Amino acid sequence: MSASLKVVSEDLKPEYTKAPAIERLSRERPYLRERRYGLPDIGRRYDGEQFNPAVQGIADAIDFYGFKVRDKDIVAIPDTDLGTGNPTKFRAFPLAVEAMIDSLNMDSLYRYPYTEGSDDIRQQLLNYVEREGFINTDPYNDEDIDEKGLSVHNITFSVSTSVLFNQIINIISNPKDVVLVTAPNYGLFTIRAERGGAEVEVLKLEKEDNFYVNPYKLAQRIDEINVSLQKVYHRRSGYVPRVVAFLNANPNNPTGRVMGKKQYQLLCDIAYVCKSRGVFVIDDLVYRDVTYDRDNIAVPMATIPGMFRNTISLFGLSKAYSLASLRAGFVVADEIIIRDLVNRIFQEMDSAPDIIGRALAGAFNATDRRYEVYDVYFKQLVEIYLYKFNLLKAMVSGIDAVDGRFQERIVTTVSGILGVPSAQKLLNGLPMVKFPEGLESSDSGFFAILDFTELNGMKYHGHTIRTNEDLLKFFYSTSRTRFLVGQSISWPYDDELVGRISYSVEDEKLVKALFNMYNAILLLEGKDDYIIRKNRLEDQEQMARIKVDGWKNAYDTIVSSRYLNSLDYEKQAERYKESFDEYKDLVFVAVRGDEVLGYSCFNTVPNVDDFESELVSLYIKPAEIGRGIGTELFLATIRQMYALGKKNMIVSCFSNNAGAINFYEKMGGKVVKTKTVKIGDDFYDENVFYFQIK
């Protein structure tokens, strides 16, 4: 039986009734109105500012993978997630489990834990890192500092390295300071860094460096960012932002590249570059123990003499120790940083659960027993991952491309799941899919990057694959398979369509997903003979010629011949080259090989009324008009504006240019105003078309 809310006393009535509190909250936070299946909302910066475009692109791509691409049938018909960060299904590290069980039998469960963690837990973690080679060659003078220059006050733990990373960024950075991350990277750390108020810039890991950090390029990148910041800010205006940290994931997620003792000099060079420039190294070591070459496990930066106080080291149980559900991580750093971390843990959550500290100490301690169990455990686990990587490689590159000791097992596995005829098809490899150059093998972890670039321009039911989003839509609509696309991991090559695939999933799930992708690719229709990409410096001369020819071809009856005759290829090319650095990310080109067929130029912050973005120009080579290139460039621009969160776009064209008017009307534009512009010595009327971006 229900009862309505009744007022007992007239004195309780307000002068007027306000809207229900829950309605007010819903109005203030519209993103809460929709029930989400999959990842929660990616979040926003705490300072209210917008993410920079690169970080917003990562956030949008992860949101698309985790939520938007999924359809209304997701609850009834589960999809296949190859983008998961879960390790493979394997027993949890036994000593961590043993330590947790022992802790439940302790007689101290009634007590609240210390915020920093108990000294006995921290001492065990300290003993571990010292056995691994951590040393502080510039210690403080406190009585409890040991012969390695360290103490328990150099360590604390919390609920995951992700939480610790957030707090570390807040400690070491001021507003507008820069955290430098690699590209590729773990996209969520990139978002977290900027959400906390820092700015994020990327250091591209390139094929020519075998996807390792190049210390010379690192030094150059830090210096150019600092110089740029010094030009924008100056001492008289107060604090001058700077690069404050470099996130060094070792092994790298997602490339799997390891910097171990074989790369020790490279690590020393990276250490010197950062320390000499006053840049902290955040050393993310969570994948360290899943290194395939057991003689070349990742070397922590803090083991290099002179680097401890400049390094913040992160360890965790999630990825390597099969304890992702526990959410346990610890950090090793200078006492100054640990003190502030402990303060923030206290202020935000009081303390971390004691049981996760016990689990950490069970996994990371310096006893001989721990190392004996560790060797057996990881010998088995690494063998599983090596097999799984070869299983994936056999399905992508063909059975002949894999390690011979796994071939028979792979054929048996795939045949048992699919049957012999289908297995034979799949084990010839995925059509038009490959591993990126330099990443055909894996050194650690359980991620692989696949190159789908050859699918660019191919069509399915009239829809063309041009972007990462198109790629994911295609595979989801045909096989209900999801994975993280290149934008999610800051893939450094804009022209390539790539995906990060996790091969930690069960064999049956992986095999069926790859077979579904194989069959989906066979459904694709022939591609156009061109692709669309961001413009390059070498494109500028061709672009200049297209603009000049375009004006003379399209506007010969609109613009005065005096002005058209003044247009010059070389002068236009020079103007484009001079402004390239400023506009390089604001221009798409359609290219066939090295030939530029057309281009679009856009502005994300137009100085026109209250509109949010603008298509500034769209030019097609006269001989290529009528092939749909203009439509594809227009759509590429619209997609880019959508990815940047823009809600509308405008474009202007001459009021008597019938061809352009017809085109923009066909694309859904509405004339919202007219304006007069001066070109040369004459004035012309222009229509301003408005496009709602959905």
3D structure, described in words:
The chain is α/β, with parallel strands linked by helices and 694 residues long. The protein folds into two domains: 1-84 and 131-353 and 383-527, Type I PLP-dependent aspartate aminotransferase-like (Major domain) (Aspartate Aminotransferase, domain 2), CATH 3.40.640.10; 531-692, Gcn5-related N-acetyltransferase (GNAT) (Aminopeptidase, 3-Layer(aba) Sandwich). The protein is 38% helix and 16% strand. The strands form five sheets. Strands 2-8-7-6-5-3-4 form a seven-stranded mixed beta sheet, sandwiched between helices. The protein has a seven-stranded mixed beta sheet with strand order 15-16-17-18-19-21-20. Helix 14 packs across helix 15 (507-522) and helix 16 packs across helix 18 (569-578). The longest helix is centred in the middle third of the chain and has 30 residues, at 368-397. The two termini are 46 Å apart.
Name the descriptors:
2 domains, seven-stranded mixed sheet, Aminopeptidase, Aspartate Aminotransferase, domain 2, 21 helices, 38% helix, 694 residues, alpha/beta, 21 strands
Strand pairing plus helix content: what structural class? alpha/beta
The total count of helices amounts to 21
Report the sheet-strand fraction: 15-25%
CATH topology of the largest domain: Aspartate Aminotransferase, domain 2
For this structure, what is the CATH class of the largest domain?
Answer: Alpha Beta
The main sheet comes to: 7 strands, mixed
- The general outline is globular
Helix content: 25-40%
| Total beta strands | 21
Low-confidence stretches: none
- Estimate the mean pLDDT confidence: 92
